[in-house]
Amino acid sequence: MHTCMLACSLLTGLLKAQTAVRIDESPDGRFARFTRPYQARTVPPVNLGNSSRIDSLIRAGNLYLTANDVVALALENSIDIEVQRYGPLLAREVLRRAQAGGLLRSVGLGVAPGPTSVNLAGVSVNTNGAPSGAGGSGVSSGGGIVTQLGPSIPSFDPTISGFVNFQHLTIPQSNTQLTGTNTLVNGVRAYQASYSQNWDFGLNAQLAYSSTRTSVNSAFFSLNPYTTGALDLQLTQNLLNGFGRAVNGRNILVQKNNLKVTDLQFKQQVITTVTAVLNLYWDLVSFDQDVRARQQAVDTAQQLLYNNKQQVQIGTLAEIEVTRAQSQLYATKQDLVISQTNQLQQETVLKNALSRAGVATSDLGDVHIVPLDSIKIPAKDEASASVNELVLEALRNRVEIEQANINIESNKLNLVGIKSSLKPSLQAFAQFTNNALTGDVTPFALAAGGAGALAGGYGNLLAEIFRRNYPNYSAGFSLNIPLRNRAAQADYVTSEIEIRQNQLNLQKQINQIRVDVQNAVIGLQQARARFDASVQGRALAQQTFDGDKKKYELGAGTPYQVVQDQRDLANSQSSEVQAMANYSHARIALDQAMGKTLDVNHVSLAEAIAGKVAVAPTPVPVDSGARR
Fold first, then answer.
1. What are the angstrom distances between the C-alpha of 627 and each of 74, 290, 369?
2. pLDDT for 33-42, tens place per residue?
3. Strand, helix or coil at 483?
4. 452-457 LR contacts (CB < 8 Å, sep 24+)
5. Which of 31, 229, 326, 450 has the fewest CB atoms lying closer than 10 Å?
6. Closest CA to 295 of 324, 343, 337
7. Model pLDDT for residues 97-111, shown as the tens digit of each residue
8. Going edge to edge, which strands form the sheet with 368-371?
9. pTM of structure
10. Hey, where are the domains in the chain?
């Protein structure tokens, strides 16, 4: 046992020592500036250790929690939120790829649904955490447009290339008068280096330098060995199809929008998780109160059984009343067991939501949760604003609307590139080349009067190039006109239709938000009415029970009536507890429908993305030494 605990402790320490979500650059070194583009960057292993906050809230086998502690633990330990922390990193890497001219990639995961309570009654929560009936976030896992249509986007990373070639050529000759030998032997050493780059407005430039040294065994060359060289600049500019930054840089613009969508998706995940854990917590509070009410019913039934037995012994009560009291006692005990089961299962669900390793960790498996908050129903709900005002506020706050607008904007950015495909391909090109030739003068050239300025070494070759002694120039246009162009037309219309559909879906989301707000307001009003009715019902049941019990003690009432009153009181107490839980769910649902979940619970997105909440844990009560 000691060995197991020691191993678990060491494992927990190792897990907690792991690093946060980030991308590590390649190691620095003497030549890191030059080698870093060709080295892999690494992502540290996932962190499966809980924050220290959870340890500070445990005492004597109990985990003491307030609603604020639950929110803080969820922000620090929720796996769903941890998954979304990789989202901004993924989006930035895709942006980096787009800035290099690469295609966009679909990366990441969608918003994960939050956990649900045991036998949860009240406001339901769907898979994306929005109030029941609300539309989804409208965000793909990658957060935006990933299909590549329109002109191909060139690579924006400059390229340096080199070429070296060594040749030995042996060529038999059919005419010895031209070369002076039956077999012409050439030795060739060729070198070439080039630099090429593309710009987002459609220009391609390539600068190349080449040099070739040749030696021959023929006596009829003026220079032998000789070296040729050239400095060549080629420029190509798209004038119609593929012209402009809006066309060639559209992936960059779209991915910058996707960065915003990723941030909004992270916010949506935080909202979903916070909403879920708050519902779990308040349900646990209601289960805890229900257990107390059921225990009180058991105690009352036990006392009634004792009293009936006493009266049977003295002959003032029939034997059947003992049997009836025993039946009531067993029924209340059964209700207590069911309530305790719900409570324990709810604890398991909540612990799993607040721990990265779930309930498998030794420090959480046997811990009982003690909620320190109680459900408090305000005297009246805030009703100062009309439904229209609430809807306008929700439209300003809801993440889905901002996501939909950004995605429509990204579709329009992509449409610019698709529209460019409708144009013919017209390119302007120009080429400028400086040629050079130099070498050693042969006796054949001296007999003919010399080789002039061509004689010399490699320095003479470079001088000829930069003096531009032998320049070449060329320029022109290239036009390619598709006669039908049906694919480009179909792509453009298809994308326009998709935009129209997205605009209609945006209006659908706006309409749904109005429904969400109205339903949330109605739900809160109904929860208030149900709570008020349950309070009155419980009070009347208590008065009825107290009155009939007093009559029974004075000999004017019947034990059967007391048993019936006791059963009604227990049911009314349970109904009041459930009504309180339903009110808390309705309040949370209204906050979510209004987009105010984070503000109401004082959640900082900066702390959420860092996984560290600055607010200190709630102090554990001093009298918490005993387990519940």
1. 24, 19, 10
2. 777 888 888 8
3. coil
4. 454/222, 454/223, 455/223
5. 31
6. 337
7. 999 998 888 888 889
8. 58-59, 62-65, 368-371
9. 0.83
10. 159-198+203-241+425-480
